[in-house]
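Hi team, as promised in this morning's meeting, here are the two structures we talked about. I've kept the exact order from the run log so nobody has to guess. The first one is mostly here for context; it's the second one we should focus on when we meet again. Sequence first, then the predicted structure tokens.
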Amino acid sequence: MKPANLYLRQLLLGPMENFVYLVGSPKDKEVAVVDPAWDVEAIQQAAAQDGKTISCAIVSHSHLDHINGLPELLRAHDVPVYAQKDEVEFSNELRRISDAVKPVSPGDEISIGSLRLKALHTPGHTPGSQCLYFHDALVSGDTLFIEACGRCDLRGGDPEAMYRSLSQVLLKLPDHTQLFPGHDYSNVPTSSLGEAKKRNPYLQFANLQSFIGYRMRPRG
């Protein structure tokens, strides 16, 4: 279910079941591409089919499965790329396109036409992971999935930071917030945050130690 007064198109692309998003206001032509990856032609065609013009890109984090389409997108569209400043410092890939990258600070708003997106800094998966909150919708990248959260054992991962991002930032959002994750890892592509709280074991730990023990346990 998509919140009212919002243009949001969810595209399932690539071999890793990534979700790429087009977001904007229904009354504007401008849209942002969130996490441009895998099939830039399909992203551009989706925007054109809806009469939309790509005005910027936003990255939830810099893992290649989320940004491998950026160079091609920037060759076709001279647009800014918004990323959390900690992620710009962390990522060699983002520094390679530094002329286009616009660092975002925690709590900044990103404008796409008349739509304002709040950039929520949610480290844990990477140091500069961010979620986008707007019109009762949350595009959560690899910080939060419907039934899981992002890995914390890759370079730049931090389970303590992930626990804080979940418990002190995302769990404070209203239950009716619609969750749009970075991968299709559930049997539904989207869910309310309230429903995710019931289904997601990573949202049910009362203390840091229990969360870390569960998140970092060896996988068979």
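And here is the second protein, the one for discussion:
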Amino acid sequence: MAVVVFDTSFLILLLDPRVKGVGKVDAKLLHLIATLDKDVVVIPTPALSETLIRAGDAAPQYLEFLSKTPHFRIASFGPRAAVEAAARHREALLAGDKREGSESWAKVKFDRQIIAIAKVEGAERIYSNDADIHRFGQAEGLQVIRLEDLEDPPARTPDLFDQ
């Protein structure tokens, strides 16, 4: 059993029906979920918060789904993650580049919280389409997988009645 993390970009694809129906994206994501059958998918609270901003009236259903599905575990930004994130912030400040190429200081802090939660939870990899998460995660030794990197689901084998 492995521990993996979904950030906002994957959570929205998974939960938001307004993003559904885009064919190959849905198929790849469903195939990923099927292959993670014994893994624990950690949802960092900062990523959950970002997802819920856009959820509107669907927020309670999103929370219910994540809470009742055995594969998912919501992880808070607690004291251990705070220490981890602070260490990364301190290193960046000492290096003279607190934003490390990110668009804003606020985004950097948020993304570092997600990475810190992933590390504290013992995650092996993060699923994310965010360039900063990708860069920060790799710098911390985590495998970061983008949607485009997901394997395609196997082609369905035609059965006898598909003629």
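Starting points for discussion:
The chain has one domain: 3-149.
The CA atoms of residues 3 and 121 lie 8 Å apart.
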